[in-house]
């Protein structure tokens, strides 16, 4: 992954602390990957050092990305098969569990060329004639209760996911990537999930929110050995905030999945957002701890 790409992803860390949306046009940023305790320091502070221990963390995170992409491709195959077969209920059942794999790795996956809008664009993100992917099929399934006209979109989606799998398999992550992944996944929650706009037809937002958090935790866990040596109190604080966030989510569990997001009132959504922000703050200090 290029230095420029890493910096563009780190540039959105300031929005996490503020609870704001991310700017997907940040690719023009230049410089090194950074971290810190204030919004300015997050993007302009010291660079994350490169050590054998941090490279081992990056390698561990890379394996996770590959495994999740494999699961995503396999789930998408089952989902698109159901769509092509006209199995509306089967496709509905597969939709959210399949997307869990995408949401766990979204910042890295979304950085790989044009595959993000091809796979995950929402209505209005791209011109109508170019709109495809999961959310176009989602609209048909839940608003029209039909798969009519979605066969080609399903085939294109499967093609794009296979392309993603190939690109992720060829990644060589740098030591700063797990730092980026841990915070950027929480930014996805703050920017795109809390509002309920992401899964606006199926209302399966809690699947996506939980998956973003799980992916963030995995990135953090890859860094734990190094962080424990450098700042055990920070590790303890982050662990506590993850536990608190999972406790906030727990009441909305329903079997192996989650209740529709429409069941959460404004106060419950605010509580969830505050819990996400509370975790994002100590995570944003990881870069400072690992600075060169």
Explained architecture:
The chain is mostly helical. The chain has a single domain, classed as M75 peptidase, HXXE motif (A middle domain of Talin 1). Helix content is 66%, strand content 1%. The chain has helices at residues 3-10, 13-18, 39-44, 52-84, 88-104, 106-110, 115-120, 133-143, 151-169, 177-193, 205-230, 232-249, 266-283, 286-289; strands spanning 253-254, 257-258. A two-stranded antiparallel ribbon has the order 1-2. A hairpin with a 2-residue loop joins strand 1 (253-254) and strand 2. Helix 8 packs antiparallel against helix 9 (151-169), helix 10 packs antiparallel against helix 11 and helix 10 runs antiparallel to helix 13. The longest helix is centred in the first third of the chain and has 33 residues, at 52-84. It is globular and about 55 Å long. The two termini are 20 Å apart. The relative contact order is 0.17.
């Amino acid at each position: 992954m290029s230095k420029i790409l890493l910096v563009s992803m780190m540039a959105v860390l300031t929005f996490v602390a503020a609870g704001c949306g991310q700017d997907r046009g940040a690719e023009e940023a230049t410089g090194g990957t950074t971290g810190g305790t204030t919004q300015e320091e997050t993007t302009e502070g010291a660079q994350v050092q490169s050590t054998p221990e941090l490279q081992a963390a990056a390698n561990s995170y890379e394996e996770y990305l590959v495994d999740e992409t494999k699961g995503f491709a396999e789930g998408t195959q089952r989902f698109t098969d159901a769509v092509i077969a006209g199995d509306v209920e089967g496709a509905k059942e597969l939709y959210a569990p399949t997307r869990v794999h995408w949401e766990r790795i979204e910042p890295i996956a979304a950085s790989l060329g044009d595959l993000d809008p091809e796979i995950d664009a929402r209505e209005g993100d791209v011109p109508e004639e170019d709109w495809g992917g999961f959310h176009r099929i989602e609209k048909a399934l839940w608003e029209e209760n039909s798969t009519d006209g979605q066969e080609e979109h399903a085939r294109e989606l499967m093609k794009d996911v296979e392309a993603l799998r190939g690109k992720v398999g060829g990644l060589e992550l740098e030591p700063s990537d797990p730092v980026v992944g841990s915070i950027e996944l929480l930014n996805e929650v703050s920017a795109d999930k809390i509002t309920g706009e992401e899964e606006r037809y199926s209302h399966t937002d809690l699947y996506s929110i939980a998956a973003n958090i799980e992916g963030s935790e995995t990135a953090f866990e890859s860094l734990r050995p190094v962080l424990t040596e450098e700042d055990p109190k920070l590790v303890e604080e982050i662990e506590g905030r993850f536990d608190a966030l999972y406790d906030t989510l727990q009441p909305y569990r329903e079997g192996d999945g989650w209740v529709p997001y429409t069941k959460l009132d404004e106060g419950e959504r605010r509580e969830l957002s505050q819990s996400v922000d509370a975790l994002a703050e100590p995570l944003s200090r990881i870069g400072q701890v690992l600075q060169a």
